[in-house]
Write a structure and sequence with these properties.
Elements: H1 14-21, E1 31-32, E2 47-48, H2 61-85, H3 101-117
Parallel strand pairs: 1-2
Length: 118
Amino acid sequence: MIVCTEFANGKCHDFKLFIKSGIHLRRNTVAIVDKGYLGIHFFSSSSFAPKKKSKNNPLTKQDKQWNRELARDRVLNEHVIGQVKKFKIVSDRYRNRRKRFNLRFNLIAGIYNFELQN
């Protein structure tokens, strides 16, 4: 279910947009995020992000197993993103008034949430 959305004009990194939005996660909310949100554990103690390898520090077998488990849980989120992209508002360039983008996206989210209930 799509609960909360935030947008920025032009290109903006996901984590920067998360910080700028001022969204606070509750203590009992579990956030399973991708590698773009590597600093989220400073904002929410119940958040999980995959381990990231670097040039000098390769991933261990335990780290790879952890990343696989998180990917299994995140696949549901990716399916929701794929469903929303069918409406083309996120996947293509938006050429209408920017003021109405949030309204239109929230309407699409409402349609998606309604379809989940049926």
